[in-house]
Amino acid sequence: MSGDGLGTVRPLPGSGLVARVEGLLLVCDAAETVAADLLAALHDTAASGGDGRALARRVAQVLAVMMGEPVACAVAGPVGDGVAVLVSGPASAAVTGPDGEVRLAGRDALTWSDRLVPGPVTGIELRLPESGPAHPLARLDGGVVVGGGILCDPAGAGAPPAARSAVPRQAEAPATEAPPPAPYPMGPPDPVPPIPVPPPPRPEQQAWHPEPGPQVPPQQGPVSGPIPAVAPRETDALEPTGAMEGGGPAGPFEPESRERPFAPEPPAQGGPQAAPEPEAAPAAQPLVYGVDCKNDHFNDPRVPYCAVCGIALVQRSLAPYQGPRPPLGVLLLDDGMTLRLDADHLVGRDPDRAPEVADGSVRPAKVTSPDGSVSRRHLRVALDGWDVNLIDLGSVNGTQIQPPGDPNFYDIPPNEPVTIMPGTTVRIGVSRTMRYESHRNR
C-alpha cells in the first residue's frame, strides 16, 4: 500500500454508492434517506484532515439517530499504519493485516460493528449485499468505473452539496472527479431537464470535533514509565515466579495449605425422606495466595497493612496460603453504575452478543455514548491474582487511563493487559469514563 495508504482501489459493481475522498472509503445503499448525510460525513471528515477513526465517529453519529432497520453502510480509513473500519446492517468488511484476515458483519450487532485493525494492512474489502466481482480495468483511484454513460456539468451546478463541501488539501483535483470534458466539436448538446438537487445538510449534521484535552503521544508498547505499577512478581519474596503452579511457591518458606472452614446448613426438618433436588452452587472465587492479619482478615501479601482493619502486616511472621479472593473493589462509571470486581467484565456498546459473554467467562457491561465512540466490544476488565488489568479489544476510538495524581491521560496499547492502580480514571472512547475504587489500603 502506498500514497494515501489505499493503493489500487477497484469499485465492485452493484446498486449502491461508492466513494473515496482523501484516503477515506465509503459504500452505502443509494436508496437510503441518509445517503446524503453519510456522504457529507465523508467529505467533512476529509476536509478537516480527519483519519479513519474520525470518519467512523462521524458516521456513527449519523447512524445513531436512525430508526427501524440498520442502514447498509461500510466505511474505512487509515489510522497510522492500521485501518479503522465500521459496518452497519447487511454490509460487511474484510481487512488483511499481520495477524491474517479480520472480518466484520453489520448483522452481528444491533447497531453497528467497528474495529481498529493494526498494520501493516495489505488489503481492504467493503461490500454491500449482492455486489459483484471487480472489473479488471476499473480503478476508482484512476477515474475508471463500470457504468452506462457520463453526464458532465462544467459549471458544477448539478453536483450534490456534499461533494462541493469538501476542500481538497492539495492543489490538484481529487482522483474521484471525472476528467474535464473535451470541447464540443459541434456545439453544446440539447438542454436536458434539471436534476433534482438534494437539500444541503442541516447545521446539526456538520462536522463534530471533540474538545482537545491534555494528551500525551501514544505509548509504543505496554504503558510504563510515568504510570505507577505494582512491583513485579519475580522480585516479591512472598510470591515468587511459579507460585500458582503445582504445589507452593519456590521460596524461603513453605506455604500452608489450608482452607476456610465451611459449615453446611442443617437439613430441613419434617417432610418426605426423599433426597431433595440439588441446588446450583454459587460460583467459587478463584484461589489466590494471601496472608492473614492477626484478626484473620485475608490480604494481598504485597501490602503493608490489612485492607480491612488497617493493622500492620509483619511479613516475616506470616505464612502465605491459598484462599478465596475477596472482591477487589468496584469500577464507578460516570453515570453512577458500578461494576463489582469479583469477576471479569466485557465493556462495550453491545456486549451481550459477544462469544465470551455467551460462554460465561465474562460478565457484560453495556456502556453507550451519544457520540458513538464506544465499540461493540471495547474493553475487557480482567482480574489476575490481586491485580485489575485493562485490555483494549482493538476498539476504534481506543482506551486511555489517568493514573492517580497525574493530570494526563495515556493511550493503552490494543490487545495487551495493563495493570491499573486504585484511583485510576479510565476513558472509554471519547466521552465515557469510569474510576477504579478498591476500598483497600494500597
List keywords for this structure.
442 residues; mainly beta; five-stranded antiparallel β-sheet; 22 strands
Walk me through what this model shows.
By secondary structure, the chain is mainly beta. 8% of the residues lie in helices and 24% in strands. The chain is built from 4 helices and 22 strands. The strands form 5 sheets. Strands 13-12-22-21-18-19 form a 6-stranded antiparallel beta sheet, with no helix packed on it. It has a 5-stranded antiparallel beta sheet with strand order 1-2-3-4-7, with helices on one face. β21 and β22 form a beta hairpin. The longest helix is centred in the first third of the chain and has 13 residues. The protein is elongated and about 85 Å long.
Can you lay out the helices and strands and say which pair or pack?
Layout: E1 17-21, E2 24-28, H1 35-47, H2 52-64, E3 73-79, E4 82-88, E5 92-97, E6 100-105, E7 112-117, E8 123-127, H3 161-165, E9 287-292, E10 298-299, E11 321-324, E12 330-333, E13 338-340, E14 345-348, H4 355-358, E15 363-366, E16 379-384, E17 387-392, E18 399-402, E19 410-411, E20 418-420, E21 425-428, E22 432-437
Parallel strand pairs: 14-15
Antiparallel strand pairs: 1-2, 2-3, 3-4, 4-7, 5-6, 5-8, 9-10, 9-11, 12-13, 12-22, 14-16, 16-17, 17-20, 18-19, 18-21, 21-22
